[in-house]
């Protein structure tokens, strides 16, 4: 038993003994040929996840090849290459400064080279780069490679809602799951305790324990003492919540900006959680209701997102200043975008196509406030559930 | 149709039309003899609820007797009686200053007189006064009177967990439901929008619509444009959440005080919600899982409580100062108590009796930190779900 496994067993402690949801008798089998892992992406969240993964690949040498490749979009930092800085000083000085990275994490500027002979790819790049990356990877990835997408959310087009993990599967022909949770990157990088959810559906061509990626392998790859992982099957559930939480956060920003206090913000989150669940059940009937209220990627990520972050800030400023969303975004986010502003429009258009706008009064109210200048003080009326009038 | 019902119909607006959960065709029947309502209690929350109730009794004269009695524990305020101040100046200057009360709300210092010929009693007094109040009321309340308890939570004794609503039923022989939600009293009194949950189980001796209290009558009694009410059956569910949320809030205070950030607080809330649901299923199998994540008294009240309040503050100070719970409580709360400190002990003792401590690792960790000085930085290990080790 490795030192890491030893430590994992130790941390389970006496308090966990006999817990119903724990199953400490389940064992992690050594891989016939240790899995080689590559992380694609090296921004704030990408580098953080690469750190987590590299720590575990070093800790479980029977399961993972110790060296973890991280594809880095090469940049010049004061005359030095970013990859060289990462590989010699073990810091991503541009996107994750002051955090020491494990020395088995190797930055590679060559995308195709970084996935050579790989078994597991972790995608962690900004949403808008995904099509280009997938295009470049085509023909260089074996169909038995498995993937996890850390990209949030889904795309809504004329034909409906597509999960980003499904996009990766379609483009590259590989099985792809997702990782999502209440994870502000900097807090995870600093090893402040948090939780996350990994969702992965075992494919039909699964080659057997020790030969292929299963839930235990994924737990070993991502779980750390400071980063607790729950592995489930429901890829759709966690992806839906990852996208729609931003719309709910706009609603929280409005009521905060109006000075309505904690009761109102909690009410928006409650209504929002209900609409997220309804959206999942309507468009991804395979998603499980429990995912939304039991998993970090569900209710916990919703709470973190609604406690602060870009969407709340933009909406709050809209309420206090009377300016429109785009002015507020420009003023606050320095060229970045509040994802909820885009998502609420995509969702509105899709729901209109389906004739289901009225089933999602909060999403619709947020859309109307952002795009049609609907008075935000009417929000309560817009989402009210009325079921009485006198005869 | 009254003006109030007119307004209610208006506010439903076009956005609500066709909503699945709304049922605007359901009508509120005029009562054969309008229901007389009394509120027992006149503290901060008691006076706020009395204001809500009095507004609705005035608005629906076909359903409720316009005059609402509020029993007030008489006090002398600079030589004037508190009841006289309320009845002449329409303010509860001591417990809810600067809020104008409706003139149909009548303060009464005589408990027995306040419930004369009453149909509906709303209990809203501090927990510790309940036995004495019930004792005084015995023999003065007809068995057909219906009650709603706004008191939070439950009592844990050697024989298990008893809901406060059940205590009222046992003591007075009357059917009793509960009201609970994400409701900071001052925000409700100021008519900032919030939501609440009313739970009431229709009794076997129900005398028929228009003659007895049903869900529509309760909605009319409590729902306001600024106070949205959902009426359900699950009294146990909302009461359990109302008590256990305070234990979860202590956990949030610990991780906040340790400087672990938003991820950690959201994780505690997620784990806490799961344990609240498990507690409900174990000891009140009639309670519904949906109550905890769909209702204001569930997830929303949990979020509001964990965003601030007494329990968070005490636990945060414990973390930052190293002082014990009782010192922190004394320092911060000016003689009031952080309910979670009592509840976590009662719950621990009850779970030990049942041999179920290990099913509730967060509740147990909070108890051990408060009562046995267990190091709070071990919290993540104490609640970790581990399900792997290498062969």
From TrEMBL, chains A, B:
Protein name from the UniProt record: Glycerol-3-phosphate dehydrogenase [NAD(+)]
Superkingdom of the organism of origin: Eukaryota
Reaction(s) this enzyme catalyzes, per UniProt: sn-glycerol 3-phosphate + NAD(+) = dihydroxyacetone phosphate + NADH + H(+)
Lineage: Eukaryota, Fungi, Dikarya, Ascomycota, Saccharomycotina
Record's GO cellular component terms: cytosol; nucleus
Organism: Saccharomyces arboricola (strain H-6 / AS 2.3317 / CBS 10644)
Entries under InterPro entries matching the protein: 6-PGluconate_DH-like_C_sf, 6PGD_dom2, G3P_DH_NAD-dep, G3P_DH_NAD-dep_C, G3P_DH_NAD-dep_euk, G3P_DH_NAD-dep_N, NAD(P)-bd_dom_sf
Keyword presence, NAD: yes
The keyword Oxidoreductase is assigned to this record: yes
NCBIfam families referenced in this protein's UniProt entry, alphabetically: glycerol3P_DH
Positions that bind NAD(+): 41-46, 73, 129, 185, 310, 339
GO-annotated biological processes: carbohydrate metabolic process; glycerol-3-phosphate catabolic process
GO MF entries: glycerol-3-phosphate dehydrogenase (NAD+) activity; NAD binding; protein homodimerization activity
Residues holding substrate: 152, 310-311
Keywords: NAD, Oxidoreductase
């Amino acid at each position: 038993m490795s030192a890491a496994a030893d430590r994992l067993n130790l941390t389970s402690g006496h308090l966990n003994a006999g817990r119903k949801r724990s199953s400490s008798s389940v064992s992690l089998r050594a891989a016939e040929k240790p899995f080689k892992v590559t992380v694609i992406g090296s921004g704030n969240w990408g580098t953080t996840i690469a750190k987590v993964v590299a720590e575990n690949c070093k800790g479980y040498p029977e399961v993972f090849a110790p060296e973890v490749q991280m594809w880095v979009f090469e940049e010049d930092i004061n005359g030095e290459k970013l990859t060289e800085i990462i590989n010699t000083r073990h810091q991503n000085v541009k996107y994750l400064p002051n955090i020491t990275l494990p020395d088995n994490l190797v930055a590679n500027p060559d995308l195709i080279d970084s996935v050579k002979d790989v078994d597991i790819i972790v995608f962690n790049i900004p949403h808008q780069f995904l099509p280009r990356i997938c295009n470049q990877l085509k023909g260089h990835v074996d169909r038995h490679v498995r993937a996890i997408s850390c990209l949030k959310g889904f795309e809504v087009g004329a034909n409906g809602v597509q999960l980003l993990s499904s996009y990766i599967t379609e483009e590259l022909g590989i099985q792809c799951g997702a990782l999502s949770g209440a994870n502000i990157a900097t807090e995870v990088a600093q090893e402040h305790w948090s939780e996350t959810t990994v969702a992965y559906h075992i494919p039909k061509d699964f080659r057997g324990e020790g030969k292929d990626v299963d839930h235990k392998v994924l737990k070993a790859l991502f779980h750390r003492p400071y980063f607790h992982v729950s592995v489930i099957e429901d890829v759709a559930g966690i992806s839906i919540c990852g996208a729609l939480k931003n719309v709910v956060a706009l609603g929280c920003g409005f009521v905060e900006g109006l000075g309505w206090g904690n009761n109102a913000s909690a009410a928006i989150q409650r209504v929002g959680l209900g609409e997220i669940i309804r959206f999942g059940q309507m468009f991804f009937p395979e998603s499980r209701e429990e995912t939304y209220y039991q998993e970090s990627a569900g209710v916990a990520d919703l709470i973190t997102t609604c406690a602060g972050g870009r969407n709340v800030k933009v909406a709050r400023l809209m309420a206090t200043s009377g300016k429109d969303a785009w002015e507020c975004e420009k003023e606050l986010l320095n060229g970045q975008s509040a994802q909820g502003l885009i998502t609420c429009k995509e969702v509105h258009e899709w729901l209109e196509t389906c004739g289901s706008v009225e089933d999602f009064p909060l999403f619709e109210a947020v859309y109307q406030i952002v795009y049609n200048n609907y008075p935000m003080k009417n929000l309560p009326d817009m989402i009210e559930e009325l079921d009485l009038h006198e005869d």
